[in-house]
Design goal:
79 residues; alpha+beta; 3 strands; globular
Length: 79
């Protein structure tokens, strides 16, 4: 994995972001905590704030989150 891959900066904080493959998007649905126009619709990407202003720290924090997301996608493909 390239350094800083999957990272996005928004309002000075770093986020990890990964697009969901089309073949499993129907397993990832926006919940009740989403904006009203998104509720019940398929997600196209996963995103999470890393709560840091430091890019190098964000690059480290993203690893566990990405691993968890990839496991969820793998599990969705087996359904």
């Amino acid at each position: 994995m390239r350094k800083y891959q999957y990272l996005r900066k928004q309002f000075s904080k770093w986020y990890v972001e990964m697009f969901i493959p089309k073949d499993v998007q129907h397993h990832f649905i926006h919940g009740e905590d989403s904006l009203p126009h998104l509720r019940g619709k398929q997600k196209t990407k996963l995103s999470k704030c890393l709560h840091t202003y430091n890019k190098d720290l964000a690059d480290i924090r993203k690893l566990d989150i990405l691993q968890e997301w990839k496991l969820e996608i793998r599990a969705a493909r087996q359904k």
